[in-house]
Specification:
Distance between the termini of chain A: 30 Å
Number of strands of chain A: 18
Strand order of the largest sheet of chain A: 15-12-14-13-17-18-16
Shape of chain A: globular
Structural class of chain A: alpha+beta
Radius of gyration of chain A: 23 Å
Number of helices of chain A: 16
Oligomer: homodimer
Mean pLDDT of chain A: 93
Strand content of chain A: 15-25%
Largest sheet of chain A: 7 strands, antiparallel
Largest interface: A-B, 104 and 104 residues
Amino acid sequence: MASMSEKISACLADGGDMLLGDDATSRSAGVWRDDSVQATIIVRPRSTQEVSEVLRVCHEEGQSVVTHGGLTGLVNSADTTAADVVLSMERMNNIIDIDTLGRTMTVQAGVPLQQIHDVCAEHGLMFPVDLGARGSCQIGGNAATNAGGLRVIRYGMTRDNILGIEAVLADGTILSSLNQVLKNNAGYDLKQLFIGSEGTLGVVTQLVLRLRTELPAEHTALVGFSDYQRVLKFLSYFDGALAGNLSAFEVMWPDFFMHQRAKCEVKGLEIDGDARFFAIVESLGVDHSQEAETFGAALEGAMEEGLITDAVVAQSDNDRAAIWKIRDEVEHLFDGGEHMFFDVSLAIRSMNEYVDEVRANLAKQSFDSQFYSFGHLGDGNLHFCVVCKSDLAKYQPTIEECVYQPLEPLGGSISAEHGIGLQKKAYLSLTRSDAEIAVMRTLKHAMDPKGILNPGKIFDFEGPVSIQ
Amino acid sequence: MASMSEKISACLADGGDMLLGDDATSRSAGVWRDDSVQATIIVRPRSTQEVSEVLRVCHEEGQSVVTHGGLTGLVNSADTTAADVVLSMERMNNIIDIDTLGRTMTVQAGVPLQQIHDVCAEHGLMFPVDLGARGSCQIGGNAATNAGGLRVIRYGMTRDNILGIEAVLADGTILSSLNQVLKNNAGYDLKQLFIGSEGTLGVVTQLVLRLRTELPAEHTALVGFSDYQRVLKFLSYFDGALAGNLSAFEVMWPDFFMHQRAKCEVKGLEIDGDARFFAIVESLGVDHSQEAETFGAALEGAMEEGLITDAVVAQSDNDRAAIWKIRDEVEHLFDGGEHMFFDVSLAIRSMNEYVDEVRANLAKQSFDSQFYSFGHLGDGNLHFCVVCKSDLAKYQPTIEECVYQPLEPLGGSISAEHGIGLQKKAYLSLTRSDAEIAVMRTLKHAMDPKGILNPGKIFDFEGPVSIQ
């Protein structure tokens, strides 16, 4: 009888492009990870047709399939077992079409995000989705995880920047919805199924992206506040004052800011030391001098109204880099020991109360921990870093309880932008009701009745293989 | 044995609020229609719990249910037969919560869109979804049909402005996903199922809306072009020049513009008579004088670069009203006889070629017809009005063929914003592949296996009742 690898190879052109055995298991499990892929078969299809053929065979055989993009995920959503087949999209990395007037780009799923940005820049265009992993992550993975990133407040998540998707269903059916227009109300919007479902409902093979005209003029400031209520009032005020040009609103609690300012080597950032909250605000526009005036006037207005205690406006690219360094060089937080990183969301009116509760929960524990909070507040997205001197693995479940439990009564989410994968699966029911999880299972059953696609991720589902 | 109305009444508080027999059938079938509701039972639930109880009973009995909002739809998506039960959302019209700092509003599905705008205005906020039917349409219907409207180019469709939805499933299960944050990647985004599915997958009962800070400063101009290619280049240029403040880009072909200018009583709109295309452009911002400068300078730049042949900038509210009058008073088109109205979308680079083809198709027919084209070009959305002196009903299928057939090779959609309902059902396969329609049926089967929800709309599905 033919082995699984032979069956897969037989349905690819010229035997296909596959890594087997040690060639597969010597690959890293992820960009920021020390462990390796467990699967012993990695298929690298070169076309949608090949993806379709592979899935058709896997479906017939009840063979589990895990799709791999750039492997920059943070919740173990692309983890494999020895029994899985990996479908790596790395060979499907062609840009099919760019329509500079309609401002759309059609790409294969394996194109790295950075390449999309580069091609856009050549045409005076931009694709607003941007994140730290841009050099490694692939657009198919950005869609499958509904990536967030740095400009969500203005341009939304990946979901909001995708017009069309071609996906292959579990049984190999090619579902082509490569819509190129903003508006298409002809029946159900099927692409939504594949965005943010972490590869459990289909394999994304091509996408139509919505592009924008490039906005080259950036203005950045670091702002201080006396209390949390003023942070919220200022967000609403400033967003209005910039008439929608606000493209970042990153808030730092004092624990985070003081630690970072001490550790990062930045000069010229003399901001009011008595401020209790800090924010990096940024506008993105086109007319540098006129917008500088608007930006400065809006900050002055905020000072006069007592919304902010101080503001340092970047006068140069160096200044801008220094301001962002405080926010971005999160590795300084890890100096004190082992760390855990969290990504939650909740209504911003409840956010400070929530931060206080998590801090109090952690303080009650028997172990010492440091706690740093910051985030894309404009999006309702909070990040925490919890650092323990030692034995983090031992305390991990307790720390997770401290962070996730208070979200439930506040209607918050255990995952703002990172997804669920395996890492947050145990906590899904804090954020989603039994009815919601039941409907997710209903959709999974309808789209992938044998459960071969990325089994065990997000929630458990009866299928041939399930990672617990 | 209890009748259907008795069974429904029995599960409502105090016998519930129902219209039976003539009280039901004397109701209009729609705001712009002459015919009446055919259903003899109209239930007006006062809570999500009542919706749930009604659906539980209907599901048990295999009773078809058609949800009614403001009945402003244009594709017969809320049509009933004598065998249907209507679930009218008119009593569920409460605003539950407005969070002025988080800029969200939680509402019941039956709240009219106009009321949402009014409440927003009291707080210096806005809900960007806006359309002509604002006084009659309800927010639940806007969601169920994914309404488009006047500001899609900047703010997207209704889908893009909804954060959370509570819906009741066919069997009465209450699915509450009243998310209040921009970012929530905790499993599948279930609200997407109910947006744009025209009431076939569930009944929307509550929504969380994303609000924006109000932008009071409007600038409007009427612009002329020598050819279509320049319209496209100007769109990209102008959107960039306004740094994202562009909130309307309405293009009028000469057939439409010349007819309307002759019919509408507008003064002071002296625009280049040799122009071949016309557009209304609008920016929405906050600093009136500064933005006037940007707006004027961008138009001057376009003149210098030869992108436009002329521009008339509105200097007053009267000017603005005159400009919009030409676009909005479409009733003048109907002077010549009976009319049909179309709503399609396609890539803007193909749009003029498509218009020419439809015009040529119609010219080949044996009957005389007038043809007017215009639309939300910035969104890839084109409207046509075809006017026949007489016998429109006879020619309707031919006219539909002339308009819809050329869309297929261009990858266009037979419905940009109006939906499918009954009216466009026969043409769905021009826009959606067999695989896509099969997946729509799969979802319908998974969510509503008995097919009781709005049967026969969008596509046929085996259920107890099917409108053909």
